[in-house]
Amino acid sequence: MSGIATGANKGFIVTKRPLVKSARKWYLAKGATESKKLPGRRVKVIRAVVRETVGYAPYERRIIEILKGGGSNPQKKAWRFAKQRLGTHIRAKKKVAEMERVASAAPKKKKTTEKKGK
């Protein structure tokens, strides 16, 4: 017996439709949602221009200060601070890694500009 609200064959009576096999969409392909694509050339240039124009957010500058400050385990302090601001551990680790690159690149950039000035 079907068409009843409860029981083994509960629910509205419908006719079964045959499944049509269609081509899978590229965005449903295995791994597409798991692995994010890397930004293209255009996006990289735009982000670089924006970063150069606007600079760093206050919390990013503070992360750089924490990393430069030293003390006992500055990276851990930076991770903790970044996690507080960004919400997740993974985002925090990524941001701290980015700020480490920035902090280490800053003295190199300074040296190259001094050499050009001489």
TrEMBL record:
The keyword Cell membrane does not apply. One of its GO terms (biological process) is translation. Coiled coil: none annotated. One of its GO terms (molecular function) is structural constituent of ribosome. Keywords: Ribonucleoprotein, Ribosomal protein. Residues 107-118 have a biased composition (Basic residues). PANTHER family: 60S RIBOSOMAL PROTEIN L36. Belongs to the eukaryotic ribosomal protein eL36 family. This is 60S ribosomal protein L36. It comes from Lotharella oceanica. The lineage of its organism: Eukaryota, Sar, Rhizaria, Cercozoa, Chlorarachniophyceae.
